[in-house]
Design brief:
Blueprint lengths: L2 H8 L35 E6 L6 E6 L5 E3 L7 E6 L5 E6 L6 E6 L6 E2 L7 E6 L5 E6 L6 E6 L6 E2 L7 E6 L6 E5 L6 E5 L7 E2 L7 E6 L9 E6 L7 E6 L6 E2 L7 E6 L5 E6 L6 E6 L6 E2 L7 E6 L2
Length: 311
C-alpha cells in the first residue's frame, strides 16, 4: 500500500473510526497500565493525546515521562485533535458528540466543555493563535476541506483558503506572523504557509514527495521558528523532518523503517513528541530535535496518537 493511502487513513474525518534516556539497544519503554486518575497533577508539564484504550476515541493527558495519565473526555462519542491554548489552561478539540464533527473547548481537567462551531459540515484540527485570541481550523463547509479562522469563543468564522484541493491541519508560527498548513493544491501533499488573513501563499516544501502534518514551536522562551512535518522523501515510509519557517535548513529527525507521524514541539524547541507504528500499533515517543535520545512513552494494545505537548 502506498504512503499517501496510509496517511489518508491516519488523518480521516471524525466519523466512523473516530465514530528516560535511551540506551544503545533501543528506546526506553514505559508501563502505563498502572495509571490512576487521582495521581495526575493538572499544573504539571503534560502531554495530551488521543487513544481508543477505553473502547472509543478519547482525549487523555499524561506526564512527560508517560508514567501517570487520565482520560479527560470520557464521552461515548469520538474525541480527538487536541490543541492547547497558549497559556496551557484549556484544550480545543474535535468531537462527534452532537451528531457531526464540531470543535469544542474544555478546561485542562476536562471540565466546562463548550461548543465553538455549529455547522453540518466537518470541523477539525483547531489551532490557537499565539496570543490566544483566535483559533484556525479546517472545515468541509464549502464542499471540500478549507481553512478558516474564528475568535476563540467561536464567533466570526472567516474563510482563509479557497481551492478545489484539500487545505487542512493549520498551525500558527510562534510569533503569529504566519499560518502553516497541509495542502494538495500542488498535485501532491505539501506544506504551505500564508499570512493570517489568507494572503501571500507560499509552498514551503514544493517537491514530488508527500509532506503533511505540520507542527510549530510554541511562541515562548525565545524558541526557534521551526516547523516539523512528516514526509516519505527518504523512500516508502514516513519520517519526521524539521525546517526553518521559510522552508530552508531541512533536517531529518527519525530514521526508523516504520511510519512516524503527528509531531509536537516542546516550548523551547529542543524536543519533539510523535506517534509511530514501529511496534505494530501506534505509540507515542519523544526525541531530541536533532534526532537523538528516543524514548518510548506509551505501551498499550490500543493505538495512542496525535500527541500535543503543553506550551
Amino acid at each position: 500500500m502506498d504512503t499517501v493511502r496510509r496517511v489518508r487513513r491516519r488523518i480521516p474525518v471524525l466519523v466512523g473510526a473516530l465514530a528516560l534516556a535511551a540506551c544503545a539497544d533501543g528506546p526506553t519503554e514505559i508501563d502505563v497500565e498502572a495509571w490512576e486518575d487521582d495521581e495526575l497533577d493538572f499544573t504539571a508539564d503534560l502531554i495530551a493525546f488521543e487513544s481508543q484504550r477505553d473502547g472509543d476515541r478519547e482525549i487523555y493527558l499524561m506526564t512527560t515521562d508517560g508514567t501517570d495519565g487520565i482520560n479527560i473526555t470520557k464521552n461515548p462519542a469520538a474525541d480527538g485533535d487536541a490543541a492547547w491554548s497558549p497559556d496551557g489552561s484549556k484544550i480545543a478539540f474535535a468531537s462527534t458528540r452532537d451528531g457531526n464533527t464540531e470543535i469544542y473547548v474544555m478546561n485542562v481537567n476536562g471540565s466546562d466543555v463548550t461548543r465553538l462551531t455549529d455547522d453540518p459540515a466537518i470541523d477539525r484540527f483547531p489551532s490557537w493563535s499565539p496570543d490566544g485570541s483566535s483559533i484556525a481550523f479546517a472545515t468541509t463547509r464549502d464542499g471540500n476541506s478549507e481553512i478558516y479562522v474564528m475568535n476563540a469563543d467561536g464567533s466570526n468564522p472567516v474563510r482563509l483558503t479557497s481551492d478545489v484541493d484539500e487545505d487542512s491541519e493549520p498551525a500558527w508560527l510562534g510569533d503569529g506572523s504566519r499560518i502553516v498548513f497541509f495542502s494538495t493544491r500542488s498535485g501532491n501533499g505539501d506544506i504551505w504557509s500564508m499570512d493570517p488573513d489568507g494572503s501571500d501563499l507560499l509552498n514551503l516544501t514544493d517537491d514530488p514527495y508527500f509532506d503533511s502534518a505540520p507542527g510549530t514551536v510554541p511562541g515562548s522562551f525565545g524558541a526557534p521558528m521551526r516547523i516539523s512535518f512528516v514526509s516519505d522523501r527518504a523512500g516508502g515510509n514516513l519520517d519526521i523532518y524539521t525546517m526553518a519557517a521559510d522552508g530552508s535548513d531541512l533536517t531529518r529527525v527519525t530514521t526508523e523503517p516504520a511510519d512516524d507521524f503527528d509531531s509536537s514541539w516542546t516550548h523551547d524547541g529542543t524536543m519533539l513528541i510523535f506517534d509511530t507504528y514501529r511496534n505494530g500499533n501506534w505509540d507515542i515517543y519523544s526525541i531530541e530535535a536533532e534526532g537523538t535520545n528516543t524514548i518510548r512513552l506509551t505501551s498499550h494494545a490500543a493505538d495512542d496518537e496525535s500527541p500535543a505537548w503543553r506550551p
